[in-house]
Each structure stands twice: as structure tokens, then as C-alpha cells.
Amino acid sequence: RLLDVGCGTGHHLAELGGRGFEVSGVDGSAEMLDHARRLNPGRDLRVADVEALPFADATFDVVLSVEVLRYLPRPRQAIAEMARVLKPGGMALVTAAPLFSLNAYPVVNRLALLLPLPGTTRLKQFFATRRGLRRRFSAAGFAGVEVHGVYYGPLNWAERLLPRALPALLRAWERPDRALAQRGWLSDLSNMFLVHAVRRPTA
Questions:
Q1: Each residue's pLDDT tens digit, 178-201
Q2: What angle do helix axes 130-139 and 76-85 make, rounded to 10 degrees?
């Protein structure tokens, strides 16, 4: 059983449901879930706060959460809820936004809040470090917390300047990107974190 926390329009649910998972999803937007229901008919999709998941303890084998933590000023409760609904030994896969990203997005985000920059959204986001994520997930009841950096370099700017060249650039960059993800502190310079953590067995 898999739960997508912040499932949005449900594309991950449709993909993973087709691979044999029994999937459920929550999102704070009823409009997003309308799209998700059309893509995932008959599946368990609920409007819910990610800080108060509407499921019993130890319900799921896997929790997935993509691009959610970056919108939470205090993610501690959401991470604790992910741990709560996982079975002991269950796995969480969660993304977060690095504070020291090479694409300088944390700086751009703060400038966009102060100045009307073209092509930017005035929505405050929140950024993390590898060390901070390990600490938060460990405190919530996870063990074996691994934080991988992915999507290195100023690729967001390449997309804007050379959009037609981007697919080939991404393919060429895939192998170095994978190698850099394992290089310790270098992951803090990536454009995205992927947290892999396992729910500790209960005493």
C-alpha cells in the first residue's frame, strides 16, 4: 500500500497503481483532486492537511511526497505524520529544496517576494540542508536516513535560454548527475533533495 502525500493531479498515483501498488492520495486542493480522480477512478483520494493525515497508524508500506516540504515553514509535523502512517520497516521517499542550490533559486524566490520579477511567482518557499533533513527525519522516527542530491547545475536557466536543447542536455547529464548524488556535502549544491528513510520498528 502506497500513500502519495500532496498527490496533486495524481500522475504518480496512476503510474504506481499500474505497477501493482494499492494507492491512496491526499492533497489540500479539491481542484487538484478533481483531476486526480479522473486519472485514478475508484482510488482512495482525500482532501486533507498534510499535517493531519486521515489514516490510522501503520497503514502503508510506502509514503511518497514530491514537492511538498518546500511549501511548509515548519515541516516537522508533516514528517511525523508520514512516519505515523507507515508500517514499521516501511519506506518514505520525500523531496525537498536545497538551501545552497547552484541554480540560486532560494535567492530568486526571496527577491521575487520583494520585487515584481518577470516569470516568477510571489510565493514564499522554504529550503533545507542535507544535515537538517537527516535530523528532522531521525527525530520523527525514521532510521537509515539517506539524503541524495539530484538535478545539478543551472539547468533551470538552460531551460529558459535553450529550451530545444534541454532534452539532449538532460540525457547527457544523467550519469554525472547520478555520480554527484553520492558525493556527501556536494549534494547540498543540487537543485533537489531526495530523502530515502525507513520507519523504525516500534519497541
A1: 777 667 788 888 889 999 999 998
A2: 50
